[in-house]
């Protein structure tokens, strides 16, 4: 719901909000520039009378003196019936330059205040400020939810590059945007007098002016009493009219000064409402608070970036949205499928399940988990079974379309008699694998809801695991149920092999490092080391995923492949000669990356697991401490990337290389080396190190056990590290 709202308002308001933000950012620089200018002139402690006295000599036709919030002094004058304005040095009273408001600044101001459209434009600006505020709040709530609550709002953000950019930039800019939008909204409301009487009354018009001979301005007592820093505006009396007076506006109020006696004829201090308005104006414009202006300007620059990434995220989601055909109503259906999904792939599985049940003669109603209501018993009068298919997001949390489910379930007092089966979709890379599905299962059990099948989980949208679950459902329903669903793969690109380096034939571990470039000569689409490439072997519809050892900025797509004699894809890849081509697509794997920051990184792998790890080291141009533990068979035969790793050691991209081998006299596996180095590793963990592991499942399990022993004296285990996002695996069986 929140996301729909956010996307909908975002799309509607993009243009207006982006114009407001860019013009706001441009204008925010002015107070800073003025500040530099006035700072250069030094501090002024003169009174208004003193400066006006100097101006009486240099500008005998002075009509008005203005002091801007940033401290610039402008004098408006008339000379031989010609009017002009000069910028004045407040300390010396000397003219700095002729003054005229910059037409570019004026244009930006008008665009910012009214989209150059007068009253209708001002209304649109008010609406845009409101939209901006709504978008900022809904975005912040969505992010808090995605990260597991407000307490975890500073956690590392996962997702695709665009999702991370959108959320990260939003997180940095949120306070600035809330301040800009809410103060802007207040000022719009004031413009349209929705805030009553925010401007204080004018001072009483002086009834009795003595009309004596005007005194020299530097002798007027009222002007002597007010420091120049308090001045906003001094308007001179009409020349030759002895009954006219000076009007003065200061930071505290407004008044009139007798030009003969120098007496303050009447004075009106600002009321609280005006003070509030002026304070809010200062917060919005940064005038008089240049540093805040710059911060707000920077936050505003986040808006175009977030609009661009937001539209792309929305479009990607829209493209992958799925329509369910023959969806029976909840009332008629004998089978209900509830779906919990964030980026729609679970809907694809639900559709396949829905269609298969329809074909088998069932009346099926498929809907989102949030549409489930606590009066389910009434709305599903004919329901005989319920299936819940749900993904997990954040740190084991509900996906968007299931966010209300557990609350609604909790509110149920009467539990239906039909049984339920839960199927969880997740990714074993995440510490809380399918945790939300597990929470749903636990909540159903706590409510004593009868079970049709025990909870099953699907890792990384595996078609095989889904099909196996289909067999189990078929058995429970006593029907033949064949579930075939391969999530739509992104469009493949043809890549040509440009280089291969072979290792390991002598130790029965034939392995090749393969480097590809697009066959059409174009640039590679964006990816980073640690992302995955899906490769379709000829004749196969099921992709095999390999971890990428390069980033697209390297200009090649590099993988490290071990040849398994029975492996269709590895045989195909290891049989390629330079010039041969493959069909491949990129799947992002944003959770498997070294964290930003200065904490050390411990990379652990064996065999081809070196691939992404070597990619991380290659891009460590900032020279963060990286310690590599890697296991092979024999240094003479399968020491993958040996030359590169030695180069990285020399140029400090790699801090320490621990390579161990299992087919030599001092045979060892990585877990053995970890045990030997336990003291050093403990120290690294104490410094906040992140551990990234890549390779086979058995190696990863042994490493986990060894690390548990290493960090036990710290009162920690690997689960603690996982929960802190400091232990990440990219593991294959
Ligand atoms: C930002 C993010 C966080 C995720 N968190 C988890 C998690 O904590 N546990 C898990 O098992 N899977 C997690 N996943 C994996 C998704 O549950 C999995 O890819 C699922 O198939 C996505 O389904 P959907 O496309 O229907 O949303 C996460 C994925 C992303 C992008």
Automatic annotation (TrEMBL):
Keyword Calcium: no
Keyword Ubl conjugation: no
TM segment ranges: 123-144, 289-311
SUPFAM superfamilies (alphabetical): Ferredoxin reductase-like, C-terminal NADP-linked domain, Flavoproteins, Riboflavin synthase domain-like
UniProt keyword terms in alphabetical order: Flavoprotein, FMN, Membrane, Transmembrane, Transmembrane helix
Domain annotation FAD-binding FR-type: ranges: 488-595
GO CC annotation: cytosol
Name of the protein this chain belongs to: Oxidoreductase FAD/NAD(P)-binding domain protein
Organism, as annotated: Oleispira antarctica RB-8
């Amino acid at each position: 719901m929140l996301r729909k709202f956010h996307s909908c308002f975002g799309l509607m308001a993009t243009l207006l909000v982006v114009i407001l933000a860019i013009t706001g950012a441009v204008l925010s620089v002015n107070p800073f520039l003025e500040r530099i200018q006035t700072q250069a002139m030094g501090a002024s402690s003169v009174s208004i009378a003193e400066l006006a006295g100097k101006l009486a000599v240099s500008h005998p036709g002075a009509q008005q003196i203005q002091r801007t919030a940033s401290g610039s002094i402008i004098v408006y004058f008339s000379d031989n019936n010609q009017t002009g304005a000069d910028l004045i040095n407040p300390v010396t009273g000397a003219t700095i330059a002729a003054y005229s408001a910059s037409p570019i600044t004026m244009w930006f101001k008008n665009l910012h205040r009214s989209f150059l459209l007068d009253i209708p434009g001002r209304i649109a600006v008010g609406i845009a400020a409101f939209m901006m505020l709504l978008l900022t709040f809904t975005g912040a709530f969505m992010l808090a939810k995605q990260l597991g609550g407000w307490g975890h709002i500073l956690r590392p953000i996962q997702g695709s590059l665009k999702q991370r950019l959108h959320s990260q930039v939003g997180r940095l800019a949120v306070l600035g945007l809330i301040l800009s939008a809410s103060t802007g909204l207040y000022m719009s409301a004031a413009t349209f007098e929705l805030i009553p009487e925010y401007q204080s009354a004018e001072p009483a018009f002086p009834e009795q002016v003595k009309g004596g001979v005007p005194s020299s301005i530097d002798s007027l007592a009222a002007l002597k009493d007010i420091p120049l820093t308090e001045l906003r505006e001094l308007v001179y009396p009409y020349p030759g009219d002895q009954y006219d007076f000076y009007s003065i506006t200061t930071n505290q109020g407004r008044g009139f000064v007798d030009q003969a006696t120098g007496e303050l004829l009447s004075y009106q201090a600002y009321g609280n409402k005006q003070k509030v308005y002026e304070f809010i104006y200062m917060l919005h414009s940064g005038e008089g608070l240049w540093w805040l202006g710059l911060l707000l300007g920077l936050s505003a620059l986040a808006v175009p970036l977030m609009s661009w990434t937001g539209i792309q995220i929305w479009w990607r989601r829209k493209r992958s949205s799925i329509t369910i055909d023959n969806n029976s109503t909840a009332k008629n259906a004998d089978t209900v499928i509830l779906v919990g999904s964030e980026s729609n792939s679970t809907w694809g599985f639900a559709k396949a399940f829905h269609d298969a049940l329809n074909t088998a003669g069932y009346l099926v109603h498929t809907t989102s988990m949030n549409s489930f209501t606590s009066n389910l018993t009434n709305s599903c009068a004919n329901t005989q079974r319920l299936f819940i298919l749900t993904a997990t997001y954040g740190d084991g949390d509900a996906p968007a379309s299931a966010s209300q489910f557990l609350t609604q379930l909790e509110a149920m007092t009467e539990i239906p008699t039909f049984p339920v089966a839960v199927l969880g979709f997740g990714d074993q890379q995440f510490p809380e694998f399918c945790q939300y599905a597990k929470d749903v299962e636990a909540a159903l059990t706590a409510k004593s809801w009868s079970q049709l099948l025990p909870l099953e989980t699907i890792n990384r949208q595996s078609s095989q695991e889904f099909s196996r679950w289909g067999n189990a459902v078929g058995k429970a329903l006593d029907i033949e149920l064949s579930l075939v669903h391969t999530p739509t793969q992104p469009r493949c690109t043809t890549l040509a092999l440009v280089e291969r380096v072979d290792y390991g034939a002598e130790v029965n571990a034939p392995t090749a490092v393969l480097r590809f470039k697009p066959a059409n000569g174009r640039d590679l689409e964006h990816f980073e080391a640690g992302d995955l490439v899906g490769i379709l072997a000829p004749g196969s519809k099921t992709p095999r995923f390999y971890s990428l050892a390069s980033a697209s900025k390297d200009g090649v797509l590099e993988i490290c492949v071990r040849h398994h004699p029975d492996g269709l894809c590895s045989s195909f890849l290891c049989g390629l000669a330079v010039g041969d081509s493959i069909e491949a697509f990129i799947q992002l794997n944003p959770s498997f990356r070294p964290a930003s920051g200065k904490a050390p990184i411990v990379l652990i792998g064996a065999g081809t697991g070196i691939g992404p790890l070597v990619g991380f080291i290659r891009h460590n141009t900032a020279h963060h401490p990286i310690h590599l533990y890697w296991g092979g068979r024999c240094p003479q035969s399968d020491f993958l990337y040996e030359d590169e790793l030695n180069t990285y050691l020399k140029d400090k991209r790699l801090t320490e290389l621990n390579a161990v081998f299992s087919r030599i006299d001092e045979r060892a596996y990585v877990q053995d080396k970890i045990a030997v180095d336990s003291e050093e590793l403990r120290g690294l963990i104490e410094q906040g190190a992140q551990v990234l592991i890549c390779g086979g499942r058995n190696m990863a399990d042994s490493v986990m056990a060894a690390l548990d022993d290493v960090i036990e004296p710290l009162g920690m285990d690997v689960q603690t590290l996982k929960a802190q996002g400091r232990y990440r695996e990219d593991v294959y069986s």
